Amino acid sequence: MSGIALSAIVKCHGATPVLRGISLDIRHGEFLTLVGPSGCGKSTLLRIIAGLDAQDAGEVVIAGRKVDGLRPKDRDVAMVFQAYALYPHLSVFDNMALPLRMRRLSGAQRLPLVGALSRGRRPIEEGIRREIEETAALLDIAHLLSRKPGQLSGGQRQRVALGRAMVRHPAVFLMDEPLSNLDAKLRVQMRAEITALHRRLGSTFVFVTHDQAEAMTMSDRVAVMMAGELIQVGAPDELYVDPRDLRVAEFIGSPKINVVPAAALDQGTRAAMIAVPGASTLAFRPEAAELCAPAAGVLAGVIVTVENLGSDIFLHVAARPAHSEGTLPLIVRVAPSARRFAIGEMVGIDPDPARMLQFDASGRRLRARERVAA
Amino acid sequence: MTAVAPVTPRRLSHASLVAGLAVAPAVTLLALLLFGPALAVAVFSLTDWQIGAPSLRFLGLANYQALFADRIFWTALANTVVYVVIVVPGTVGLGLVVALLIEAQPSLRGFYRAAHFLPVMSTMAAMAIVWGTMLHPTIGLVNRMLAELGLPATNWLRDPHTVLPALAVIGIWQGFGFAMVLFVAGLKSVPQSLYDAAAIDGADRTLDRLRVVTLPMLGPVTMFVLILTATRAFEVFDTVRVLTQGGPNFASDVLLHRLYTESFDFLRTGYGAGLTVVYLAIVVLLTLTQARVLDRRVHYT
Amino acid sequence: MSTLAHLFRMLRWRAFARHGALALTTLFALIPFVWMLSLSVKPPEEIFQPEFHLWPQQFSGVENYRAALTAAPMHLFLINGLFVCATIFLLQMLVCVPCAYALAKLRFRGRDTLFAAVLVGLLVPPQALAIPHFVLLHVFGLLDSYAALILPWVISTFGIFLMRQFFRAVPDELIDAARLDGLGEFEIIWRVMIPVAVPAIAAFGIFSVVAHWNDLFWPLIAVRSEELSTPALGILLFRDDEAGQFLGPLMAGATIIVAPLVVAFLFAQQRFIDGISFTART
Are residues C82 and C57 in the same domain? Predict the structure, then answer.
């Protein structure tokens, strides 16, 4: 069983804390994504799992074995880097062979010239060649083996980087934003390929990204990190429907969730919408509200932008709540073909109270159930 | 420029007028100070002309025949080659090692970099004089230190066996800080992610990191430094002029010093011009090799 | 815990080895300077005595430096160096910058030919042109003058090449915007390109000044008079002089010649290192 157990990982750069006590269990064979805005510490956490950085406190267990003192190569992990980190002077074949050679050949056998003469190297090299050819065939890069990375396209380099990670059959794959250097179309394609790869290999994948769409589409579970803390871990739809923190609600989902400060609403609206005492912020998804006549809506405002995606139309509305100085930007999804919307048109918005999320002043989610208890 | 200049031909002629004005001084001076003189050297080398002489006679290739028959020319050429063969590996090797050591850890980095670069900045003529006193047979630092170790004294700059190596050491002293700086720049451009990848792949000991990442990534810089150092070593002049004037008995004479002596001490202009043409040919060959290597240095990416 | 302690010991050992090795190479790099300074403050008898002290028992720095400054016009060597280097650099810029701008940003007939000529010019080592330059200056009666020291260097194919490469990286929009604002081409050079190119100009300036301050080959050919000597030639003349037979004053003289660039370097290390390696790598 090759799960990963992190307990109370702390890391500081000088006086500034980067990770503030991260505990997380990653199950064997799971595809877990660490997601968060840049600088939230997700890459640092990945590097600590890999052994490239050492934590200041806490413990890393991989496959039931404490690995804190172990060097990266002894942790049975492979890593795919953001810019792929392929050795530019080596052919694709030699790039993929390097991790195997470093493990299987002795120091003397690895020496240039002399090593080639040593007995016993031959059969090892043949084994390595066989395995690389298998992996290359799997990734559809067999025809590229003699090329240098500089002669490959971005997508091909990506596959080579995956291949270099795969040849060793590691227990754990670590991926540090591996898709961020690809163009949009290729990125979507590689998402599918990586999830397919995960299903076929059945190994544990830990995937780091700042792109919530990647996290939502690829993972079994998503761990949302903010400012060095793990805020919520859960299946993608769980994070979307049931966020435990306003920051998670805002980070997950596109277009963004609508956030309404309770103080901006007038007395009647507040009473109608707030289901939990103490809620200071309300939020609802664009699809959790209906359009209505300006006077009939809980909120009303002017259409600023009409974003027509064909299957959906997103209306960007500048609402003017009663107790607010400025306008409040809201997004509402409407089904297409209903009618045409004109910019500047006044509309009313009527959120579904059952799907209204409520948060306290510190951004913590308040649940309706708690009102019953109170 | 007038506001109304809509006709294309007029605008074009105006643009080429501006361009012409901009390049005119450079073009004139290139012709006058570079290409004209280069042609003149070639012509001089075919005559018996001497500076100040009222007339000249066309000699054909006689100057070159004399040159190639001249034992001293061959000695100077051989000395230059020996000098280059010592200085280049010494400078590049020492520069590389120092760069690796300096970049290995952050402490005192700035100090080491400045200290090693100091010789590059210093006036070689003056420092050659200083080296001369350090290599002095009786009061020199080198022999004093050898005496402390109980070793015999050597007259470094007067002994035909030691004079070239001694000059080469001075050459290395002057150049290795420069090589170091270029290597440091090369080291800084090696992406950290390659070291990370190497650590995951199992190459995490110093020597493995050197073999798998650092040295291959420095390959292009190394070729560049090699050629640059070779070109500079080939142009050695100051130390020879200041310290040995080619002696003893031409044991330290080098091409550029020969060129200077023949042309400006003995005023054998035709012969000197022939020597210049040969020198030019060698330097151009070296530099073209450099250009080819530089072209190939993009082959990694 | 024991692995940590082991790691710590290993790191300590590494740091020790690194500093040890670098101390040796630093010694190699600096010892001529130390030796020069040490002799420059010693009286003759101490230089010749069998035992060696880094610091003199009898301090003769004042006498030695005074001897160096009075026996030879040291201050003139420095002023000449400054004047010659500054003039060469200014004239080089005056010639190079418009030409480089035209090569980089203007279209005109013969542009490619001119650039090819510049590239060929890069191949020619300046020493190879010494004879015709000498003849040319001789014909115009300019030998043994400041002009002789300066004129051959006024055109720098390297400077044209370097500035052209730098100008090419300047976006065309910037120039087009300036044209729309009503600037003429030479105003563009002066008001737009030169301010943008300050790093390249500084780098080339450092390269040029260092090269000509330290040059011995050409001044040796071009001038005979002591009062026209540049620093490198000056120290050589001083040594071959009667006064230079005394090592103390000679080392004091060498210190005076070497000091300006070394001090400038110590004050602006990064600029010098960048300048010299930048110009080497282009």
Answer: no
Q: Are residues C214 and C149 in the same domain?
A: yes
- What is the domain range of residue C121? 72-234
CATH of the domain at A280: 2.40.50.140
C48: contact with B, CB 8 A cutoff? yes
Q: What is the ipTM of this complex?
A: 0.88
Please state, as a whole number, how many other Cβ atoms lie within 10 Å of the Cβ of residue A96.
31
| pLDDT of C49 | 77
Whether the model clears a pTM of 0.90, i.e. scores above it, the answer is no
What average pLDDT does the structure give for chain C?
A: 87
Asked, for residue C10, whether it belongs to a domain, the answer is: yes
Residue bearing the bigger pLDDT, B287 or A50:
A50
Same-domain check for residues A33 and A114? yes
Residues 229 through 258 of chain C touching chain B, CB cutoff 8 Å: 231-233, 235-236, 239, 247, 250-251, 253-254, 257-258
Distance CA C157, CA B30 (A): 8
Q: Per this entry, what is the length of chain B? A: 301
Determine the residue among B195, B201, B296 to mutate to test chain A binding: the one whose Cβ has the most chain A Cβ atoms within 10 Å.
Answer: B201
Question: Cis before residue A336, ω within 30 degrees of 0?
Answer: no
Q: What is the pLDDT of residues B230-239, one digit of tens each?
A: 888 999 999 9
The predicted pLDDT at position C243 comes to 64
Question: Is A99 close to B200, i.e. CB distance below 8 A?
Answer: yes
Name the residue range of residue A313's domain.
256-373
User: Considering only residues 187 to 216 of chain C, which have any Cβ-Cβ distance to chain B shorter than 8 Å?
Assistant: 189, 210, 213-214, 216
How far, CA to CA in Å, does C56 sit from each of C30, C45, C59, C243? 19, 11, 6, 21
Q: Averaged over B76-83, what is the pLDDT?
A: 94
Shared-domain flag, residues C20 and C96? no
The CA distance from B120 to C273, in Å, is 10
Q: Are A25 and A142 part of one and the same domain?
A: yes
More confident residue, A232 or B288: A232
